[in-house]
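Re-run with default settings, no changes from the original entry. Doing this only to confirm the output is reproducible before filing.
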Amino acid sequence: MRRIKFYRTGSGKCPIELFLDSPSARHARKVTWVLRLVERLDSISQQFLKKLAGSNDVWEIRVQISGVAYRFLGFFERGSRLIPKNAFAMKQQKTP
């Protein structure tokens, strides 16, 4: 089982918490649901969690809802603690 602990700056600010204040309530529920999946499931689909190719152990939590992709980038500490450090959202282009 993994444990997610958001990164905090030296002054105590948490960029992920600030980011999570921006999505709609519906999107925030889906993000929370995926974060709980990542924590609770031993085996999780790459649809939700994957190591970035060519990275030095950078992991990505992925959430997709209503044409918006939310990404949380972080690293593992002590084997099972996942520390998301940055987050962003992007609208997805519809393919013709």
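Residues 21 and 28 are 8 Å apart (CA to CA). The two ends are 40 Å apart (CA to CA).
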